[in-house]
Design brief:
InterPro entries: ATP-cone_dom (IPR005144), NrdR-like_N (IPR055173), RNR_NrdR-like (IPR003796). This protein is of the alpha+beta class and 167 residues long. The chain contains 5 helices and 6 strands.
């Protein structure tokens, strides 16, 4: 690290701290030549590889924007969307890869979105997984119902009585 004051090619780290919820490291440095101190912030870069092969920097805003469309008219707050985008980014960063395929980002969104709002999940999944028939929706709803029943059984809840109305 070059000293910004005297351009000496080296510096000594005096203190290191994580910041931005662990997304970056703030280092306090001292130049051995002029003894002046300065601060650096180190972040890891995460790139998205699109279907076309082009790469672009990862953006939480793009995740929030895409999920916001699926959540339109649903009881989901901006804070909920920000938290979902943070979870997705943490999942992607934990993979240890600097380049993430766009398809993998969609997969990483599906889990947290299902927990947040099932209707929004179905909307997002129908576009992301290219549902082209009612059977695709029925299959996804069947999976959601089975997961809900498993969670209820794990909690010891009684299954809701089926209501049937005769014509």
């Amino acid at each position: 690290m070059h000293c910004p004051f005297c351009r000496h090619p080296d510096s000594r780290v005096v203190d290191s701290r994580t910041s931005d919820d662990g997304a970056s490291i703030r280092r306090r440095r001292q130049c051995p030549s002029c003894n002046r101190r300065f601060t650096t912030v180190e972040t890891t870069s995460l790139s998205v590889v699109k279907r076309s092969g082009a790469t672009e920097p990862f953006s939480r805003d793009k995740i929030t924007g895409g999920v916001r469309k699926a959540c339109q008219g649903r009881p989901v707050s901006e804070d909920d969307l920000a938290l979902l985008a943070q979870k997705v980014e943490e999942t992607l960063r934990s993979s240890g890869s600097a380049e993430i395929d766009a398809y993998e980002i969609g997969l990483a969104i599906l889990g947290p979105l299902r927990e947040l709002d099932e209707v929004a999940y179905l909307r997002f999944a129908s576009v992301y997984q290219a549902f082209d028939s009612l059977e695709d929706f029925e299959a996804a709803i069947t999976v959601l119902r089975a997961e809900r029943a498993e969670r209820a059984a794990a909690r010891g809840d009684e299954p809701a009585a089926a209501t049937h109305v005769d014509d």
